[in-house]
Amino acid sequence: MNDDTPAPYCSVLLIDDEAMAEDLIGYRLSQHADIRLRYDARAELAVSLCRETEATVVLVDLRMPGPDGFEVIRLLRAAPETDHVPIILLSSEDDADTKARAFALGANDYLVKWPEARELEARIRYHSGAYQARCQRDAAFLELRQREAELRASQAALHQAQKMEAIGQLTGGIAHDFNNVLQVIGGNLQLVKMIGGVNPQGLARVDNALNGVERGARLAAHLLAFARRQPLQAAVVALAPLLANMDDMLRRVLGAQAQVLTDLAPQLWHTEVDVSQLNNVILNLAINARDAMQGDGTLTIRARNVAAGAPLPDSQGACQCDYVLIEIADTGAGMPPEVLQRAFEPFFTTKPTGQGTGLGLSMAYGFVKQSGGEIALHSEVGHGTCVQIYLPRSHGTPAGAAPDTAAPLSGGVETILVVEDEDDVRAATADLLAALGYDVLSSADGEQAAHLIEDGAHIDLLFTDVVMPGRVSSLALSELVKRKLPQAQILFTSGYAEGVLAHDGKLPPGVHLLPKPYSAETLSARIRQLLHQRATASTAA
């Protein structure tokens, strides 16, 4: 039976004070091309020579001036990189005590000079093969440990992602109900102000309560942003002027003792993002930085282009597309690893009770993910924190600035159909619009509203909740209105759109959404804006 498997390559280091040894050993091994021999008389350099030749076997003479064979064994066994290299001691002494001492020091074999060629080759191959097998085994174990470490890291990342998703679903549902409750409270308080007859002390109480509604609305918005359930009204934006224009605002937030530095690379790419949400993210990160620096330090905002193929943060692979990277770095106290691991969780905070909701980073996480980007957090105790936000590049052209909707209350005489399944919300909204002069129709669901339209009711604007029970959805109702009353405008509202309107977290062009809770001023401004668009379109036609 022939074995055609090639033998492993052998690298033999021969250390002997007599050059004749090279000729004798070399002659015995000369017929074997897979055995490489290196001779050297410098026994004191045994370790470095072994590393240099990548020796798989060392042949060393016993009796030499200076370090002898025993000392060479000690040297090789004392060095971690050569402690397992096979050593064959060569000696003219066939003495049991000498052999025992050699093996006690760590020799693998003992040959009496000069061994027959076949025996020498066999022993070299045996020891070299065993050593190479050991190296392969050690490499396999090392790779296995690395794979196990990578698997544990992947499992931890998956567990964290699943936990964040579960928390996101929970918080999204809570925010939906919370926003409806806030709308009922806010709507009725606004009606009280509009109706009048309240003394100054009572008005102060109403305004105080409305401020509380606004705070609750911001809290719910942060929850929805983290849960990635907040429809983004994205637009192509030039980041450089946007970030530069935030400089003054950030200085006011950080206080007089802190310093703000802006480092924007030239020719920054555009990105498609909800500008108001991005402003909120940067503002929240700046507030976190202020608290971490205790009002005295440096906040640096950097931005640069990151081409496809560049590594993503936290070993997430390479960028699949072009990104714009925004970095917000502070010189604060930094975070220990156990805090860093939980930093993106909603309501997790290390601040004292009453000094923070723990939603700033979680809101940033949800917004960036929903925008198609990546976010990473780097921090070290005593060396500050850096938040990296990767936003996909857009090749579109930045749009002009949106009109300011924070206008005084204004009404009209048009007919508005309010569709809302929450009785208290529907009543408060209908009364508010009626107080502004509008002719108001109301329905508790899409099916009831569809019957009104089918029966010939004329409306100028449909104001409908997104998520309603019944057989007729808000989308189906809007399509019916478009067919029957093509001049009518459509304005959606929701405390939690649940992806009904949004695609990939973004509203399609031409879809108008007013998030709950909304103020009387915001509602009246949006309605007048849409009705003005209708009038302008009719005049142009």
UniProtKB/TrEMBL annotation:
<feature type="domain" description="Response regulatory">
    <location>
        <begin position="415"/>
        <end position="531"/>
    </location>
</feature>
<dbReference type="Pfam" id="PF02518">
    <property type="entry name" value="HATPase_c"/>
</dbReference>
<feature type="modified residue" description="4-aspartylphosphate">
    <location>
        <position position="61"/>
    </location>
</feature>
<dbReference type="InterPro" id="IPR005467">
    <property type="entry name" value="His_kinase_dom"/>
</dbReference>
<dbReference type="InterPro" id="IPR004358">
    <property type="entry name" value="Sig_transdc_His_kin-like_C"/>
</dbReference>
<dbReference type="InterPro" id="IPR003594">
    <property type="entry name" value="HATPase_dom"/>
</dbReference>
<keyword id="KW-0597">Phosphoprotein</keyword>
<dbReference type="InterPro" id="IPR036097">
    <property type="entry name" value="HisK_dim/P_sf"/>
</dbReference>
<protein>
    <recommendedName>
        <fullName>histidine kinase</fullName>
        <ecNumber>2.7.13.3</ecNumber>
    </recommendedName>
</protein>
<dbReference type="InterPro" id="IPR011006">
    <property type="entry name" value="CheY-like_superfamily"/>
</dbReference>
<feature type="domain" description="Histidine kinase">
    <location>
        <begin position="173"/>
        <end position="395"/>
    </location>
</feature>
<dbReference type="InterPro" id="IPR036890">
    <property type="entry name" value="HATPase_C_sf"/>
</dbReference>
<dbReference type="Pfam" id="PF00072">
    <property type="entry name" value="Response_reg"/>
</dbReference>
<feature type="modified residue" description="4-aspartylphosphate">
    <location>
        <position position="465"/>
    </location>
</feature>
<feature type="domain" description="Response regulatory">
    <location>
        <begin position="11"/>
        <end position="128"/>
    </location>
</feature>
<dbReference type="InterPro" id="IPR001789">
    <property type="entry name" value="Sig_transdc_resp-reg_receiver"/>
</dbReference>
